[in-house]
């Protein structure tokens, strides 16, 4: 009985030893499994972290690419705008260059014209020095001519000469205007020497003033006829006197006066003239 108990105790002891070893091994395996499970969890977590980082970096790259593309698009648009502006500036420059060249040619022409005008002005100043004395000589000659000529509008013509002298002393009248009026006076004197001309006036006869129609054929003959058509006279340039005409010349003179006034068609009429005396 004691042996049996001893054997049983030994068996229990062996069984307890074995169970202890099994339990230890089980704990060790469990521990190893826990460690491995923990390690696997750490690896998986690490892999998840790496993937998240990669995804994050990839997103950053995509965002950077988008931003870069936007910048590229913006720069391209700016470059296109600059190109258009450049072409516009070039076109405007060409237009301005053409216009400036045109204006420069105008300025050159104006400068040439101004230079020419200045030369002319300088020439005019030199010309004045010779023209002014000439104008005084022309006025003196005109006055002398009127005094020696037949007395056609003599008072009127002498008044014209005096006006010419007045404008020569006027600073408000230019030299060119002075010369123009002198030439105009000469032209008027020339007109007196052509055509049939008549006008009314008064003639002193035997100390009396008689209203008459004056008539002259250029400077060939200068006659007068009373308004009652009863008397007529002719001017004698040599004696500076008026001489009465015979009755036979009264009617032809009346016709000549009417022809000068366009009241009668031109026709041949018989009028007296003073012939120049032949030299002995």
**Topology as H/E string?**
HHHEEEEEH
Give the helix tally: 4
Strand order of the largest sheet: 1-2-3-4-5
Computed over alpha carbons, the radius of gyration is 68 Å
**Which structural class matches the secondary elements?**
alpha+beta
Multimerization state: single chain
Overall spatial form: rod-shaped
- How much of the sequence is in beta strands? 5-15%
Poorly predicted regions: 1-7, 276-280
State the total count of DSSP E strands: 5
- Residues in helices, as a percent range: 55-70%
Largest sheet: 5 strands, antiparallel
Global mean pLDDT: 81
Structural commentary:
- Residues 100-127 form a coiled coil.
- It comes from Idiomarina ramblicola.
- Keywords: Coiled coil.
- This protein has a domain at 196-271.
- 68% of the residues lie in helices and 12% in strands.
- It is built from four helices and five strands, in the order H-H-H-E-E-E-E-E-H.
- A five-stranded antiparallel beta sheet has the order 1-2-3-4-5, covered by helices on one side.
- The termini are far apart.
- Mean pLDDT is 81; it is low at 1-7 and 276-280.
